[in-house]
Amino acid sequence: MQLIVNGEERQVEDTPTLGEFLALCALPSKMVVVERNGEIVPREKYDVTMLANNDVLEIVQMMAGG
Fold first, then answer.
1. Would you say the C-alpha torsion 17, 35, 41, 28 has a positive or negative sign?
2. CATH number at residue 35
3. If residue 38 lies in a helix (H) or strand (E), which one and from where to where?
4. Which residue segment(s) compose the domain that 14 sits in?
5. Contact at 8 Å (CB) between 29 and 46?
6. Of the candidates 35, 42, 41, the residue with the CA atom closest to the CA atom of residue 56
7. Which residue, 13, 14, 46, 66, could crosslink 19 as a Cys pair with Cβ 3.0–4.6 Å?
C-alpha cells in the first residue's frame, strides 16, 4: 500500500490502522496530530481508523519544552 506522509511517498506492506502506522514509525500517538486526506483525525479514533491506498497524511509532532 502506498501512502503520502508529509509530502513523501511511503510503502507499507499491510493495511494498518492509523495507530499501528504511528507505532511503526515510532511516533507516540499522544504527541502527534494527524490530518488524513484533509481532515484531522481525533486521537481517540487512531486505533480504529483504517488506512487505505493513496491516503495523504500530514503528521505534526508536538514538542515539550520552553
1. positive
2. 3.10.20.30
3. none
4. 2-61
5. yes
6. 35
7. 46
CB 54 within 8 A of CB 10: no
Model confidence over 30-55: pLDDT tens digits? 899 999 999 999 999 999 999 999 99
Number of domains in the chain: 1
Q: Is residue 66 part of a domain?
A: no
Q: Cell 480504529 identifies what position?
A: 48
Residue 29's SS3 state is: helix
DSSP lists the bridge partners of residue 61 as 32
Round to whole Å and give the CA distance between 4 and 65. Answer: 29
- Whether the pTM exceeds 0.85: the reply is yes
Return the residue matching grid coordinates 494527524: 34
